[in-house]
Amino acid sequence: MRIVAKIGTSSVTTASGEIDTTMVQSLCDQVAQLRVAGHEVIVVTSGAVAGGVAALGLSQRPTDTLTLQALSAVGQSRLMSVYNAALERHGLVGAQVLLVPNDFVDRTQYLHARETLERLLGLGCVPIINENDAIASDEIRYGDNDRISALVAHSLVADVLVLLTDIDGLYTADPQRDASARLVQRVEADDELLSVRAGESAGERGSGGMASKLAAARIASWSG
After folding, report:
1. pLDDT by residue (tens digit) across 23-69?
2. Using an 8 Å Cβ cutoff, are 182 and 25 in contact?
3. Could you give the number of structural domains in the chain?
4. What CATH number corresponds to the domain at position 138?
């Protein structure tokens, strides 16, 4: 089985914004278990910008694009270092792959990206994917990794796409603001209430939200 697992900034960093080594190790432990069971695993991870914020000792996440891109460059190497160390404990090799939207739009780029990922899997590596925030312009970037994970799953004909988050799932309302919010156990691809249920809210450390996860789910469902 081929599995794409996406983990967001709020899950991969601590409350203070540091890269959560324990969480990354736990994720990589599970990746190793899946590999032993004969499965292929591709990880899509956020956290580079948050890692850059922490590394430079900033008190809060900036909002201007240029600074965010610079912070991504600072944090990405630190993020990969944590992943590599966690995977090496199991004798696994991580492989950094940074993607931009054009890699899914331009046919030549799409095929190159897919072939590289396939080759990495063939070599026994664990691809660690992130959006290339350091160079992607604000006008064309996705801004979150939820959609990228779905597009990667489609490109690699994955069997399963898992979006890991710090809440239990989709609610009828924002559970942090509405105590009556109920967990939605199952959502069909044609559910017209999805856009109503999903807010765009994201944590201070991240850029996604439930709406982007539902968009990813739609992409995955359209892909079969």
Report:
1. 999 999 999 999 999 999 999 999 999 899 989 999 888 888 899 99
2. no
3. 1
4. 3.40.1160.10
* DSSP designation for 183: B
First to last CA, the chain: 15
The residue whose two tokens read 């312009």 is 137
Q: Which two tokens stand for residue 181?
A: 């919010």
> 144: which DSSP letter?
S
Q: Both tokens of residue 36?
A: 């032993």
What residues form DSSP beta bridges with 19?
13
Report CA-CA distances (Å) from 151 to 4, 28, 32, 115, 141: 10, 22, 24, 14, 14
Which pTM does this prediction carry? 0.84
Q: Which residue has the tokens 């090496």?
A: 88
Q: Which residues span the domain enclosing 118?
A: 2-222
